[in-house]
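INFO batch 0412 | record 1 of 1 | parsing
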Amino acid sequence: MRETLSPTSSGPAGAITLAPLGEIVTIEALSGRDGTNRARGGNPQLTADTDQAAVLAWLARYVDSPNTLANCRRESERLLLWATTERSKPLSSLTHEDFLVYRRFLANPQPAERWVMAPGRKASRHDPRWRPFAGPLSESSIRLSMTVLNSLMSWLVEAGYLAGNPLTLSKRRAKAPGPRVTRFLEADLWDAVRGTILALPQDTPRQVAVYSRARWLFSLLFLGGLRISEVVGNGMGDFHMRADAKSGEQRWWLEVLGKGSKQRLVPATTELMVELMSYRRALELIDLPRPGEPSPLLFPVAWRRSKHPVPDWPAPMTRSAVHGVVKEVFAAAAQRWLKDGRGQEQADKLSAASAHWLRHTAGSNLANDVDLRHVRDTLGHGSLTTTSIYVHGEDDARHAAVSSAHRIGW
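INFO prediction complete | emitting tokens
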């Protein structure tokens, strides 16, 4: 059962059912219809008359950007729940002082039984065990949260829903120096991750499936520089072969629909294609996908090839499930690191790593030896034009450069 708090219960935590955004039920006083910061008069641009409806209208802007939508939903959901349960206020009555308190709350969400997910497998958003937090947020995560909320509040002011944005009163930060990537794995840590995957047991069919999937996933994340959303959002049928514009040599590419619905071509190096074929053999599939094959890039471990000539393809794994696979490997690598008598600080770094760390690791490795234009286009940091022989020539040079310099070395 979800925890339902009565409007007449004592303390500030009353009047709301702890539930995901879109399912939150509040008493009228907390709906936001009479929020003290509501804009009165003028020419409102929203039909929304409650805080929850206004937040959902803001989120609708990001429906074509799954990653951005997920991040914005998480942060606005947390704030809306906190405001009504811990401050007994609607979002549209929050003040500058409330946001100062909320910032401290993010560093230590209490009471933990209400706000923090229990250890173990992550519960879905519709599971009674679901909670808004996995634990306290780091300082960088808190800054990101406040940036997202500032965007929300500013938009609600612009839309004529709120009279003002309390977050604009926050201390303005001095201009920071240029960004520097710190969330990546140095060579020894990356070696430890590869060694952990290679050491996975392969005595049973399930263990072989776990090993094969982990090895293929980390090959995609490192050699392709893919985001998790791109792993789950693209398929094996997106691999295709194209002739070199000058030499006529056939090269493999992976066409990726990425962040912001932008398409890019990722060089499918010889090493990546070998890993693809190895993974497909473990799945009892033919070595190479057919053009347009509707198979996902990553299969659930429990999937088994049917005897039918055309396999019954599984649905793509969810982002959270793929994230879980990645975190399990990093956690095992950290344990292996400590078991080998190595330092706690580096083990902690392995434990903290995520799929995006692999993307940064891939970018760092590429930038050492590959033209930065090729790195930009491979990782999707800029637009990719494929409408002329000249651009095809640039693509082929990028393929050769990436293939020669960027290896995983299983």
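INFO post-check: Residues 66-86 form the longest helix (21 residues).
INFO record closed
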